[in-house]
Amino acid sequence: MALILPLGSPAFSRHADAVRQGFIAAAKAAGQSAPPVRVYSVNEDTVNVLTMYEQAVESGAQLVVGPLTRNGVAALAASNFVTVPTLALNALEPRSPQPARLYLFSLTVELEARQVARLAFDDGRRNAFIISDDTALGKRMREAFLQEFARVGGITVAELSFSADQSSLNKLRQASNLGVADMVFLALDFARARTVRPYLGNALSLYATSQVSAGKSGALAARDLNLVRFVDMPWLLQADHPAVMIYPRPELGDLAEFDRLYALGIDAFRIGLELLRSSHEPVLDGVTGRIRLTRDQQFVRELTSAQYVDGKTVILGAPR
Question: Phi-psi region for residue 278, left (φ > 0), alpha (ψ -120 to 50) or beta?
């Protein structure tokens, strides 16, 4: 296996190293069944990425894992270099070219937002408010939820913009008391969701992605998001999960983002083994979620659903 990561990028080297550590941990856990792994360091230059990919294949790689950045994945997909099974660790833009041997596996928030939409609908919610900000991530969450909720039969009553000023927060309170919606989707990160939560009362069901994870902030922070339902990976929510217990937990700092990337590396290696075995319909009980392969060669994850209740995280449902 060749692992291509932007270890030489000032912006992404820490992210890449977290993925590398998880990948190597999974290879060690696999023991003698693990093929040799060679790590290739790249930077953010797409020409560098393609050059190293070509070098990896010429050196005998039977499978390539990477690139990690969106630009790198897009450049590889648009090239004619993909001649061996390749597991890219990011998403492609809709309707982008995708070579026959290129598979996708990522932590994209769109997949989470779609799962939340289905979860809310399955819970009986039919009329939604969406609260989002103007960040790129917020827009991606909002759009993915909007489309999926409509697809399953839900109605988005109104889209509300986040602002921390008092008049805007009071408008959120007024909207939540109108009785025209039965849920709110928070297309926000933890800090902004924590700001708006007190203005939403307890009459509406509240949903969010893993972006609202309190991480290592403790019970007080989680208490501020009381009754918010969200999804996240078993690696962060279920320490007693059979797959999770196998692997060591390195100290990666206070940001949950790096723990997620470490988990991505673990499951990327495990998926790589399945691709080398030419498994036709691989299903993995992964540390990032329940993983299956779709028709568009994308490995999608079903995450664990949970809820903050009185400062504690309560598991609502494991991935199906």
Answer: left
Helix, coil or strand: residue 38: strand
Nearest to 14 by CA among 254, 299, 271: 254
Give every residue of the chain whose pLDDT is below 70, as ranges.
216-220, 318-320
φ, ψ for residue 185, nearest 5 deg: -100, 120
In angstroms, the CA 88 to CA 85 distance is: 10
CA separation for the pair 147, 152 (Å, rounded): 9
Q: Per residue in 237-250, pLDDT tens?
A: 999 999 999 999 99
Residue positions counted in the chain: 320
Per-residue tokens: 239: 């320490």
Instruction: Report pLDDT digits (tens) over 120-141.
Output: 999 999 999 999 999 999 999 9
DSSP 155: E
Strand partners, 302: 290
Rounded to two decimals, the pTM is 0.94
Q: Is residue 185 helix, strand or coil? A: strand
Partnered with residue 161 across adjacent β-strands are 132
Positive/negative CA dihedral, 130, 133, 136, 138: negative
Phi, psi of 239 (to 5 degrees): -65, -25
